[in-house]
Protein 1
Amino acid sequence: EPEVTQTPSHQVTQMGQEVILRCVPISNHLYFYWYRQILGQKVEFLVSFYNNEISEKSEIFDDQFSVERPDGSNFTLKIRSTKLEDSAMYFCAETGTAYGYTFGSGTRLTVV
Amino acid sequence: AQKVTQAQTEISVVEKEDVTLDCVYETRDTTYYLFWYKQPPSGELVFLIRRNSFDEQNEISGRYSWNFQKSTSSFNFTITASQVVDSAVYFCALRFISNFGNEKLTFGTGTRLTIIP
């Protein structure tokens, strides 16, 4: 299975700080996603991104969150002012492979 | 509703036993895809299988097999002769088209499988 790279693998941040999670997608794909998994819980949809625009977002994806693809390659998720409840595993994903969805290895975000 | 239910929260079996993980789904779509992912303690999501709604053939891959039954809206996963390395959380997921015309995945709550040596 082709790889989607996420950085960092683990980030610890203080409440109120901004964090940027990065994803390096497989080239030539157009549809990107961010999903979140709070520890011990299910994986939840956050946002989908198509043709450099948000195509759909969940109720979790409030004004504190933003996504962009600043240089046509990296795909980022920004949380402006982190809260304790933002602590979770964040996965980026993309479609376009024979597998349907390819998930990155995840970023474990810990807000203290 | 677009929903996946994994009723088994945790399962423990002794090594070499067979184990079946249940997955029941709900969807209004006539075309949809079902997935299984493995999440080991390291946290990544490992793709296991994708099955589309038109293909009800059961599939076997080594010790893994999947039983897809549209009549009962189930897509169950069996591990034969389990091994300690099979210990992980397993998620079933449904790909559907949202009201906004976007494809999305919805996941079940996962089944934590522990293989006892």
Protein 2
Amino acid sequence: ETGVTQTPRHLVMGMTNKKSLKCEQHLGHNAMYWYKQSAKKPLELMFVYSLEERVENNSVPSRFSPECPNSSHLFLHLHTLQPEDSALYLCASSQDSGGAQPQHFGDGTRLSIL
Amino acid sequence: GENVEQHPSTLSVQEGDSAVIKCTYSDSASNYFPWYKQELGKRPQLIIDIRSNVGEKKDQRIAVTLNKTAKHFSLHITETQPEDSAVYFCAASINKFYFGSGTKLNVKP
């Protein structure tokens, strides 16, 4: 399934670097999400976009900055991250952001902070 | 907000046996309950879902049951196979998804 594509798959960066994660969906969905997945913890919702407008920001530190230029693309800009930010970052999309439709996930970006 | 608890955290069964994973939720207004399977190094994939107006749904070897009164729902996998080995996540949704912490299922051949 190539409905939701994330790049890069792996990223190693130092705490002073700036990098961006990219997500693209080819499903014609109107909502896109960023999640953080850490070992043995529930998926943590970070941001929700509906029709390119941010509708939720779950108290995420400002070192994570999302961008949604159109309904098919979503970015997560990273700067001055901390070691505890090392995790798998998953992008997802759904028909709408109302919570009643299944979310389709990408393969994720495995992020390691040195 | 909603709180979803999932048990067990790990489950080991013999090939051919059944596996049951249970989730409880706290908000009675939750109305959509999907289950995801995540194989090692791969994306979570929806395997089955159920809405609050239905008590049970089945798809081949997989079934989900929902008890709204008790606020719990369960995933049932029959005739397990080694390729069923993965981490399974439940979620309860009221405007947004609240995920359980996952169950690592190991099916021994």
